[in-house]
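Researcher: We're teaching a course module on how sequence relates to structure. For the next exercise, students receive a sequence and then see the predicted structure as tokens, so they can try to spot secondary structure elements on their own. Here is the exercise chain.
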Amino acid sequence: MADYIDEGDLASYLQLPEVPSDASFPVKMANGLVTDVVGDLSPVPTRIVTIALEVAARGYRNPQAYSSVTVGIDDYDKTVRREGAALTAPGYYLTPDETAELLGYVGIRRRRVGSISLQVPDVP
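Model: And here is the predicted structure for the students to work with:
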């Protein structure tokens, strides 16, 4: 597995004063997800590093993939919500746009299917 980012990169990206002790797992997950798509690239394009950093940061900030958290004050009440893909997706994932961009680095482009007219010409 390629190491596109390390713990120091993540700490810098998150603007943390020091490398957190729990940064190795998000870095490992991000490197693994990116490597699964592009393999080992050399030299490493900067945009791939940026995508890996965002994947790690997303997972570091929100590992349970919550879409919202509501906390009450009086008589303490806490509501945690997961919506859509977050119901089954972990906190570490590539978005469809990130995946498409990464695939472009290995020569696979997103294909689009156009619409097909269902009307027969010259027939009312």
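Model: If you want an answer key for the exercise: The longest helix spans residues 46-61. Residues 117-121 have pLDDT under 50 and may be disordered.
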